[in-house]
Design a protein that fits this description.
The chain is 40% helix and 22% strand. It is of the alpha+beta class and 387 residues long. The strands form three sheets. A six-stranded mixed β-sheet has the order 5-4-6-3-1-13, sandwiched between helices. Strands 10-11-9-12 form a four-stranded antiparallel β-sheet.
């Protein structure tokens, strides 16, 4: 924050009220590709994310500088005339939030100066984009005195990513970044937006994130294809069973009616969405009862389903998960995030974390030529203005 403030004063001067902000990334423990299918998810906010310092302006300009991309220099945009695009540049996620707030009727009449930086690897599946959206939302909420709840900030982030950036994501990433709670994961029903904070009582076990160092690009890619295929499966099922989303089905009902989906690929996508939703419900129940072994088994099953039915894994993620399964002190391991690269999340005995990193790192390097990175995940607070 000191470096951010120093840079801000260098670029924009030190007068007026300068405030600081943070929005975290997230890791999803289980419940992948269920959020836009009306199912349950179980993410937690991370201590990693995007930091910013900002000061309100008296005109209609937004000026920004990102210390992670110094070659971009200072850029600016007027807040009128913002229009959707699919450039996929980091600041489009910021501008998209301002556009979305305007679309929803909020008074975004003045701009701000802002310097930001992040300590989270992009393309890692830890939702850097949602972190940027939520830091923009809390800046606008604070500096422009907008009467908007943090839950609605999450909805604004999703709306902007869907409609400004062209990425048809669900609500999970933005909700986790906005609503995170220290020491807890969020059990969220994405169909109703009802949620519950669940303590992460891991009994001397740690959540370890392993970055495959394979970056994904989701917007305009296979992610949107998966959503379209799931929607086609839903339409086929709705002809024979009264449901609003795939999340309304349990396994037995799906198996009874699955032949209504005549396309084999769409049937596989639906099977993942239905079974993954039920796995997530069962996993949270297992965690609450202290049955971490059951929680771990469900994590492993989740990865297999994402690999085989939803087909969003890749060889690097498969290696990381499959090698982790071989270690006796690993409770469970799976890919996390949208897929096509990014990270795995593993539950590891606390006293074996260093050995886990050594063994997985060496095997992964041998099999792929890539050097994995490891992060110990601590569940953290959500997006906010800092003191």
């Amino acid at each position: 924050m000191e470096k951010l403030l120093e840079k801000f004063k260098e670029l924009f001067g030190d007068g007026g009220e300068i405030h600081s902000y943070f929005a975290p990334g997230r890791v999803n423990l289980i419940g992948e590709h269920t959020d836009y299918n009306g199912g349950h998810v179980f993410p937690c906010a991370l201590t990693m994310g995007n930091y910013a310092v900002a000061r309100k302006r008296d005109d209609n300009k937004v000026r920004w500088y990102n210390m992670n991309y110094p070659d971009d220099g200072v850029q600016e945009h007027v807040i009128e005339g913002l229009a959707p695009n699919d450039h996929g540049i980091w600041y489009d996620y910021q501008l998209g939030v301002l556009w979305a707030l305007q679309q929803k009727g909020y008074a975004v009449n003045t701009g701000y100066d802002m310097v930001m930086c992040g300590d989270m690897p992009t393309g890692s599946g830890l939702s850097a984009s949602a972190s940027i959206e939520l830091v923009a939302a809390v800046i606008a909420r604070d500096l422009l005195n907008l009467d908007i709840s943090m839950a609605d900030c999450a909805k604004i982030g999703q709306y902007s990513e869907n409609n400004y950036n062209g990425m048809n994501c669900g609500i999970m990433d933005q909700f986790a970044s906005a609503m995170g709670k220290e020491g807890h994961a969020i059990f969220l029903d994405t169909a109703t937006i009802e949620y519950e904070y669940v303590p992460l009582n891991m009994d001397q076990k740690k959540i370890v994130i392993t970055n495959s160092m394979v970056k994904h690009q989701l917007a305009g890619s296979a992610y949107n294809d998966r959503r379209r295929e799931s929607e086609e499966a839903l339409k086929a099922l709705q002809k024979v069973v009264d449901i609003k989303s795939l999340g309304d089905l349990d396994e037995e009902t799906f198996e009874k009616h699955k032949d209504a989906i005549t396309d084999d690929i769409c049937r596989k996508r639906a099977r993942h969405a239905v079974y993954e939703n039920q796995r997530t419900i069962a996993a949270v129940k297992a965690l609450k009862s202290g049955d971490l072994a059951a929680f771990g088994r469900l994590m492993n099953e989740s990865h297999v389903s994402l690999r085989d039915d939803y087909e969003v894994s890749c060889k690097e993620l498969d290696i990381l998960a499959e090698e982790a399964w071989k270690l006796p002190y690993v409770i469970g391991s799976r890919m996390t995030g949208g897929g096509f690269g990014g990270c795995t999340v593993s539950i590891v005995e606390e006293d074996s974390v260093e050995e886990f990193q050594k063994i997985i790192g060496e095997v992964y390097k041998e099999k792929t030529g890539l050097s994995a990175e490891f992060y110990i995940a601590d569940a953290a607070e959500g997006a906010r203005r800092l003191n």
